[in-house]
Amino acid sequence: MKRIHAPVLCAIVPPHLLDRLASAEDPDIAQAARRTLAHDASLRAARRAGVAPGVPPALASAEPAAPEPRRTVYDAGHRTALPGVRVRGEGEPPLRDATANRAYAGLGATHDLLWSVYARDSIDAAGLPLNATVHYDRDYDNAFWNGGQMVFGDGDGRVFLDFTLALDVIAHELAHGLTQYTADLAYQGQSGALNESVSDVFGSLVKQRALGQSAEEADWLIGAGILAPGVSGRALRSLKAPGTAYDDDVLGRDPQPARMADYVRTSSDNGGVHINSGIPNHAFYLFATDLGGRSWERAGQVWYDTLAGGRLAADADFADFARQTVASARARFGRGGPEDEALVKAWSTVGLPTEEDA
User: Is the preceding peptide bond at 83 cis, omega within 30 degrees of 0?
Assistant: First the structure.
């Protein structure tokens, strides 16, 4: 039986960015960042202690699995008790609260990708209910997956806006649950960066499919729309051009590398899981755009097959993952075809040659 790690707190805004904001000259920005950092630290400590706040991940119904999502959105009322007050369930009409409606729609769009494209019924493949809490805490500059549900802050209004404004952020957090129920990649070092990258990839796929975009038409940004007016940046991360998502006096400059030659060695953020994820992110972008068309079909299928195939070790590094994706591509599409060639080229471009070992 595959060992499942204790779920960890997987947040969209990395600690290194919040650390910088905590030193901002604007006291309101600094206070919001320090509050978010302190709260995130307490949540991580609770996860390490085995305390799972909110809706637990084992709430799948005893009824037969169905392809429809089973969504529930809760409102924390700017408090931190999870899950909060239930405000909308599956099939219920929209609310006046746009934030709750966006969370509900994001859950549905993610479930729809998994079911319609990959024949997977929810993140656990067994119809797991999808739960989200909105309006978490006050001036909370983050969104996270806690092992059982998604949680969204409203931002401080000065640097970050409502985190449900970006569909890919919603899908990113839910994709951490997908990883939890498949490869269960350890949230440390390169396997942790892969965990983050997988969420960025599936976040992008959900957004592109919802918008009907081809690989060429997509912006390949994560978090576009959640940066407040006046912030010099387009998003939190870019799969197309890691290191270019933002360059701001307060936020600093996007530190993501695109190639192994620029890999960042750090002890912070679990070994730079939000930073070095730029490398496999860029490999996926190169693969998808080389193939062209709908990214969620051939390129996304290879990533899904690798994640759910049962051969990827929880402590896999980038080279392991690259080799497994090539094996998945060849198993599904054959050796020497356009998928195989595009993928080998993509990994080689970011500094991870696979051909001799694949």
Answer: yes
